[in-house]
Amino acid sequence: MASAPIPLKVSLPPANRGIPPPPAQTTVKQVTFGSVKTTAGHRIAIYAPGGWGKTSLAVRAPGPVAMIDLDDSLPVLWPQFEALGITDNIKPVAGVVTWTDLLSTLNASGWDGIKTVVIDTLTKAEELCAAEVLRSVPHEKGGRVEHIEDYGFGKGFSHIYDTFLPLLAAVDRHCREGRNVVLICHECSATFPNPMGQDYLRYEPRLQSPNSGKASLRLRVREFVDHLLFGAYDIAIDKDGKGIGNGSRTLYPREMPYCMAKSRTMSEPMSYNDNAEEIWSRILGK
Question: InterPro entries, from UniProt (predicted)?
């Protein structure tokens, strides 16, 4: 006599298969919605050839302007600023000589009432950062090194990059508190790797940027700022192929074949002569 078949037990898959249930007795976090803080300051980087007027433009930003003069340009420019009647707008920041000085100053109290912070220049700040790395970061095998290259291939660049990032965090804090921050850079020419054709030269900020793209402060600053503005002298080519110019200057707010640039508020180049107030109004979207 055949035995009765044994019934199979079939378990239905849970409705949320693939999504693990929350642990028992765990409160599920609820999303929080906030408002947009329109009082935050702008993060602005300006780079241009020497003598173009980067510092003169920066100190005419909405003030009072706190000036961290790493390049020691104020003693030379001060008579010009006195003649322009703008010295009351400028508050020189004292005691910044080393990388540690720079970070501690930016993170200090006492910034109330300041509307714009200027670092002149970020290129010099990178040099201070490199000196701090050599002073404080030992070789992986022990002992100090004398040159960034002595850390080994690419490792010195990484040390500088990691040491530099707290400065951007300090800048971000000032902007969240409502202050604009202007980062002045020197310029350089760099080969742009063009995936659509031949590589070409263009102007970029003079900041660390290894060919590998890793540990590139230049690219990190471009990502970080709201505006990366390139200042150039206007040059034309005559019939003999020679460059000629009359000293006129232009500020470029967007990427061009010859320069790295971006802006959240400006779309067209602006001539720069005695119109600093108009330029800042355009940059700040006012």
Answer: P-loop_NTPase
Q: What is the pLDDT of residues 195-230, one digit of tens each?
A: 888 888 999 999 999 888 899 999 999 999 999 999
* This prediction's pTM: 0.84
Please give the residue range of the domain that contains residue 76. 43-283
Closest to 97 measured CA to CA, from 122, 69, 58: 69
- Sign of the Cα torsion 48, 51, 52, 54 reads positive
Any bridge partners for residue 47, and if so which?
Answer: 185, 230
Name the domain count of the chain. 1
Residue 2 lies in a domain: no
* Within-domain flag for 27: no
Q: How many CB atoms lie within 10 A of CB 99?
A: 23
CATH number of the domain that 103 lies in? 3.40.50
Residue 244 pLDDT class (50, 70, 90 cuts): low
- Strand spans (E) along the chain: 43-48, 65-69, 90-92, 116-120, 180-192, 200-205, 227-233, 236-237, 243-244, 249-252, 262-263, 270-272
Cα 130 to Cα 148: distance, rounded to the nearest angstrom? 8
